[in-house]
Amino acid sequence: MTIIVVLVATIEVVVVVVVVVVVVVVVVVVVVVAVVVVVVVVVAVTVEVGAVLVEMMADESEAHLLYCGCDAWQLRALIEILFRHATPLTTLKHLCLGAV
Predict the structure, then answer these.
(1) Domain extent for 92
(2) Is-above-0.70 flag for pTM?
(3) What's the helix, strand, coil split of the chain in %, to 5?
C-alpha cells in the first residue's frame, strides 16, 4: 500500500514538472516570436521612412540644385550618403562643395 502511495505521489510530481516545463517553453517561444516580429516591423518601418524622406528631399531638389550646383542624380546620391553616414559635419553644403 505504501508503494502505491509513493508511486502516485512520484507520478504527480513528474506530471507537474512536465507541465511547468512545457508552459515555460511555450512562453519563451511566444516571447521570442513577439520580439522578432517587433524587430522586423521596426526595421521595415525605419527603412520605409528613410526611403520616403530621401524621395521627399530629392523631390525638393530644385532649390538645392541652385544652391550647390549639383545635378539631380548627384543630389540624390548625396542625400543617400547623408542618411547612411550622417555626422554633424556631413551636411549637404559640405558634400556639394566636395568635402566628402
Answers:
(1) 26-96
(2) no
(3) 85, 0, 15
